[in-house]
């Protein structure tokens, strides 16, 4: 049902991104909040690659004629760009691309442990802000112990008024499969310091089998290489005929 590959193994991704870029207005891309945020983190000197990355994402989706895409809440606007590009292409060259729809999980966005007003990101320079799947139990405990909350000890869920504690509740619900209401019921009577350790332990238990599998796979590089090679072959089999038809439609053949 799925396969893994690397970009350079399927050049149709980059080639289609160039074609789609020719159908995309610059102001449309400049409006995306991800561009504004990332550019600000680069001293307002964002690169062309960063600016056009959402178009590459659209190519990733449309190259396989995807109909549904699992995304986080922060990527919904990027998917809407892919929808706009698909509709523009269809209007210009005839009905070809399905207009992809978003699949959102119940936990739409996890916030930073150091600044719960922004999303958790693997590129965050603050190491304590992000929990990585490969983190050791001690690292996970430290990050949650240092998580920003507030001066109220009770565990409640109020994303606007208490973003830090609410973020912990969201994480707890996500890794346990419980609802927010169930998490709050289980946490009644706990202060935030104790609750941080409860959440940390839940995350450790959730990540443990995944982390063990990652370690196992990292020790078998030949298997990983084969997975990528097989994935590249499957991707090419799917992408090549679709891309050839795109080339024909836009007049490259």
TrEMBL record:
Principal location listed in the UniProt entry: mitochondrion
Enzyme Commission code(s) on record: 6.1.1.2
Molecular function terms from GO: ATP binding; tryptophan-tRNA ligase activity
Keyword ATP-binding: yes
Gene3D superfamilies listed in its UniProt record: HUPs, Tyrosyl-Transfer RNA Synthetase
Keyword terms: Aminoacyl-tRNA synthetase, ATP-binding, Ligase, Nucleotide-binding, Protein biosynthesis
GO-annotated cellular components: mitochondrial matrix
GO process terms (BP): mitochondrial tryptophanyl-tRNA aminoacylation
Subcellular location: Mitochondrion
Pfam families in alphabetical order: tRNA-synt_1b (PF00579)
InterPro entries: aa-tRNA-synth_Ic, Rossmann-like_a/b/a_fold, Trp-tRNA-ligase, Trp-tRNA_synthetase
PANTHER family: TRYPTOPHAN--TRNA LIGASE, MITOCHONDRIAL
Cited NCBIfam families: trpS (TIGR00233)
Entry's family note: Belongs to the class-I aminoacyl-tRNA synthetase family.
Name used for this protein in its record: tryptophan--tRNA ligase
UniProt organism field: Pterocles gutturalis
């Amino acid at each position: 049902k799925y396969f893994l590959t690397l970009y350079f193994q399927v050049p149709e991704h980059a080639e289609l991104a160039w074609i789609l870029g020719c159908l995309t207005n610059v102001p449309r891309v400049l409006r995306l909040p991800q561009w504004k945020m990332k550019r600000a983190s680069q001293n307002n000197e964002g690169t062309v690659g960063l600016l056009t990355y959402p178009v590459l994402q659209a190519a990733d989706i449309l190259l396989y004629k995807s109909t549904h895409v699992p995304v986080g809440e922060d990527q919904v606007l990027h998917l809407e760009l892919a929808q706009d590009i698909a509709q523009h292409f269809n209007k210009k060259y005839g009905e070809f691309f399905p207009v992809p729809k978003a699949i959102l999980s119940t936990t739409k966005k996890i916030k930073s442990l150091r600044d719960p007003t922004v999303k958790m990101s693997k590129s965050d320079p603050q190491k304590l802000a992000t929990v990585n799947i490969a983190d050791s139990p001690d690292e996970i405990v430290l990050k949650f112990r240092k998580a920003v909350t507030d001066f109220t000890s009770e565990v409640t869920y109020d994303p606007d008024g208490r973003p830090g504690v609410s973020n912990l509740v969201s994480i707890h619900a996500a890794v346990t499969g419980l609802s927010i209401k169930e998490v709050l019921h289980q946490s009644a009577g706990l202060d935030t310091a104790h609750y941080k350790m409860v959440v940390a332990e839940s995350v450790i238990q959730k990540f443990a089998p995944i982390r063990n599998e990652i370690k196992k796979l990292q020790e078998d590089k030949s298997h990983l290489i084969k997975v990528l090679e097989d994935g590249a072959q499957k991707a090419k089999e799917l992408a090549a005929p679709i891309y050839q038809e795109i080339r024909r439609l836009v007049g490259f053949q």
